[in-house]
Specification:
Helix content: 25-40%
Number of domains: 1
Number of strands: 10
Order of helices and strands: HEEEEEEEHEEEH
Largest sheet: 6 strands, antiparallel
């Protein structure tokens, strides 16, 4: 009899623990869904910003620049404002850089699972490249089939929900790249024309991507230039994951 009561009590404890764990999981899922909805609200139609500067240049015997090394960073749009993402090293041929961007328009035909994205327009930087460079050699801000770094709920990781969402979006991006844009696609994919700029050492270049396209301006803001170089030095000196 006592053994039977002990088993029943043990089962009750397990059931209560499972119920509590299930409730906690539901709360976490709902919280992440709200955070994702908030992120889409911030990004909807908002311009994106990136900064770049020349790190080094190679010059041939005739004095022509044959190759340029760049330090590039883009910004995420957090609840508190823009936050810089890690600095990337990019190498392009020559001295003229080109930067393009992607506009994703989520229409009312988006499937119910992602209805939160309906009537949302997301602008994201696409590529950095040089004149005459093969598309396969472009530096891409958007790793294929991955959640873009500038569109994550959490900068250092991705959630299951946003991974599913971007799997869905990438189907349309790949389809548009391979077959062209269907006229009534649930996600309209528009590659915005690239902006071009001849680069000089010691200057800061700011790229702005909006629904109207990409622009690149220049300045000599020493504070930001120093911040970019400090950031890349800190990244280089940080311990590498095993």
């Amino acid at each position: 009899m006592m053994l039977g009561l002990s088993i029943i009590a043990g089962l009750a404890v397990v059931l209560l623990a499972n119920a509590r764990s299930s409730r906690q999981q539901s709360v976490r899922v709902a919280l992440e869904a709200q955070r994702f909805a908030d992120l889409l609200g911030r990004l909807n139609g908002h311009f994106r910003r990136a900064e770049l500067t020349v790190d080094w240049q190679k010059v041939d015997a005739a004095g022509d620049i044959t190759e340029t090394g760049l330090l590039v960073r883009q910004f995420a749009l957090e609840a508190q404002g823009e936050e810089p993402l890690p600095v990337e090293r990019v190498v392009i041929p020559g001295s003229a850089v080109r930067i393009d961007a992607l506009l994703l328009t989520f229409t009312g035909a988006v499937i119910p699972d992602f209805s939160v994205a309906r009537d949302t327009r997301l602008i994201l930087f696409g590529h950095v490249y040089g004149n005459g460079e093969s598309r396969s050699d472009y530096f891409s801000f958007m790793a294929r089939d991955q959640v873009p770094a500038a569109a994550r709920v959490h900068g250092d990781r991705t959630t299951h929900g946003e991974t599913l969402f971007w799997n869905y979006a990438w189907e349309f991006i790949r389809g548009a790249d391979q077959q062209g844009q269907p006229p009534k696609s649930a996600v309209q994919v528009t590659w915005l024309p690239a902006a071009s700029r001849v680069l000089r050492r010691g200057l800061l270049y700011t790229a702005i991507a909006s629904a109207d396209g990409v622009t690149i301006s220049e300045s000599d803001d020493r504070r930001i230039l120093n911040d970019i170089r400090t950031s890349i030095e800190q990244q280089d000196s940080a311990p590498r994951p095993n």
